[in-house]
Amino acid sequence: MPSNSIQTWLTDPIVQTLLIAASGYPLGRLVDALGYRAVKRIVSHTKTQYDDKIAELLRKPLRWSVMLAAAWVAMDHADPLPSLGFIIRGSIASAALFIWTKAAFQASIIVIEWLASIEGRFSAVTHRTIPAWTMAAHLLILAIAAYFFFLCWEFDVTGWLASAGIIGVAVGFGAKDTMANLFAGVGILADRPYRLGDFLLLDSGERGRVTDIGLRSTRLMTQDELEIIIPNATMATAKIINESGGPRESERLRIPVRVAYGTDIDALRALMTAVATQTEGVLVDDPNRQPAVHFKAMGDHGLDFELLCFIGRPELLYSVTDRLNTGLYRALDAAKIEIPYPQQTVHLSSSTQSEQ
User: Are residues 77 and 32 in the same domain?
Assistant: First the structure.
């Protein structure tokens, strides 16, 4: 082909437009290769694999962005009719927005999992709160993408934002209980006032072991083998005694005992301690958790003592209490120690007797 023909062909606007558009593919490949190689060299010095996943994830969106940018430049060079140019620009921008929105969805999952894997740094982001944080991140990304989509097609977003605000208020009022439970669930999973397997006593009197902590509710299994489902909003504001808290699950029992005045105190202490050490379920191997007897008060109707001893698990509370009360009653009865009951003595004055 003669040189003047080549020059004429290259100066043709349609050919130039096609060449600019076609150059996007090799440029995209080149940027992908060089950029990925540079990023790979940087992230290779880190110990985690999450940054490698993000680097791999961004390769395709970056390559497509270069190709779409070439198409945009080619369209500007062609200078089509305003209506056609508007459609082409909107389509290119929408395609780029879709590509990066999809990448942002996937990247948000990787970042949240990355944060959850770092122990002790982000207490609000744990493996159990990953679904909640992922949902929140996706909703945020979707809202931003919708806003830019309207801008791509030159829509007036003022009216849409006002409508979205009204709809959001209506939905918030309609689903306030659900949202309260969700936020409370995230708070419980982040603050961890109790964990799976803990034995709880609620201010309403229910006792049970935690079998599940969800985003909406917490489930307790009672000793009657009944499952209690409690909304997280209620759990977040309730007074909870975590009987599994502390260095171990052991729990101290307090058994009150009242005996008559005149009882030998030292003999009573020895008797109550012997009953405790011989009762099944009472901890006696730990020197720091030995049974003890406290003389609490000299009451109106007798001497008030209290037997203190530890049990290994909260579930043993009722059964060990039954054994201790049974053993103490039998031991006191065998030792001829009186267990007094409230009495009142009425004294009549001489005037009252004469009137009778």
Answer: yes
**C-alpha–C-alpha distance, residues 278 and 72, integer Å:** 88
Residues 25 and 161 in one domain: yes
β-strand partners of 304: 258, 297
Any domain includes 304: yes
Q: Is 314 exposed, middle or buried (0-12, 13-18, 19+ CB in 10 A)?
A: buried
Q: What total of structural domains would you count in the chain?
A: 3
pLDDT tens profile 325-346: 999 999 999 999 998 887 777 7
Q: Among 237, 131, 136, which residue's Cα sits nearest to residue 184?
A: 237
Task: Tokens for 186, please give them.
Answer: 């995230």
Write the pLDDT tens digit of every residue in 303-313: 999 999 999 99
Contact 190, 123 (CB under 8 A): yes
pTM (whole model) above 0.70: no
Tokens of 305: 């003592």
- Tens digit of pLDDT for each residue in 201-241? 998 888 999 998 887 889 999 988 899 999 988 998 889 99
Residues 265 and 307 in one domain: yes
| Domain range for 104 | 7-176
**Please, is 205 exposed, middle or buried when counting C-beta atoms within 10 Å of its C-beta (0-12, 13-18, 19+)?**
exposed
